[in-house]
Amino acid sequence: MNKDLNSLLWKHHWKLLSLFFVTVVGIYLYNGLNQVNSWNENYQSTIEQIKLSEGTETIKDYDFSLFYTPGQSSNKIFTTFINEPSHILWIAIALLSFGLFFLDKFSDFDQFLFASRFSKKMIFSTKMIFGFSTLLGSLIIGKIIFIGLLYMQIPNEFFNATFFELLPNQLLSLLFYSLIFSMMMFFAIIIGDVFFLIFVSIGFSISIGFFMNTFRTLFDKWNYYQHGSISMIASNSWVFSLFKAPGIQGEHPPIWYYLVYSVGTGLLVTLSSHYYKKLSLENNGKFILFSTLNKPLILIVSLYVPFMLVSNWLYADFYNLQLTRFFWLNHLLSFGFGVAFCGSLSWFLLFKKEALKKRSF
């Protein structure tokens, strides 16, 4: 890393990086205080209800532990479900990546950087390091504050979790947010229209968690169809939870989740670096700045969106016992119509609309 480039980028982006850091830590602090207050209020309210209905002698029969663990007794009191503010963090991560890689394209700053002695590879690497270090640093500090509030404000006898029991889900959430940042970064580099960028980024980042769980749904569906066995479906929110084990899933996150998020992040960083080196500010305003990406993106959208819609149908219809060939045929036909519709719409947006724009000028 070049010290002069570091100093230059820090002077230009320090407000954005500082605002993101304060926002993320503040979100965790606020959420932690709310969770503590919610637990205490729920605990006191439940105690009063038990005293009024059953008397003080039966209170000892109830389990008020903070974290849900599968297989506990029926007297387990679900005092709270502790989830991270994932959707708010998505917005903050999107703004961070847009500020580092998208807004600079429409200002004189990127033009100044490209005309300087610094290579595009060096500029991209420095921006990326600034982004990832701010992201991971703020998340780790925020998580420490969040869990620290729970540990200090809730009685020890109810805090039924150790650091190593909470670590797997927290590590997975760090990998997931890294994937979201790298995804936003890639879109910010290859897309030249702000509204199209927001639409695509929000759609992909929100749906990626459901996309992962779709495979588990399909596996469970197939096992039931073939063997008559059924297992619980993982909820999308479990990736961001602080459960010792996910509330409706009796196991820790699968290893392939870690692999997919890690490999996906690495692939998106590699692609982002490749296209950033080819970036030209003359094409700003186009939906896609690189014409070679038009057809691959149409193919991805044409398959991804219908797959998400049909998978949600599968998820909602999972407990339907009439799993016949017609069931699968209906879903395949729906997927086919979805591919045709999304492919046509994507083609119009990326090709026909660009042609209409040129004619109007």
TrEMBL record:
Domain of life: Bacteria
RNA-binding found in the keyword field: no
Segments passing through the bilayer: 12-30, 88-107, 128-154, 174-204, 255-276, 297-316, 328-351
Record's keyword annotation contains Membrane: yes
UniProt KW keywords: Membrane, Transmembrane, Transmembrane helix
Protein name: ABC-2 family transporter protein
UniProt lineage: Bacteria, Bacillati, Bacillota, Bacilli, Lactobacillales
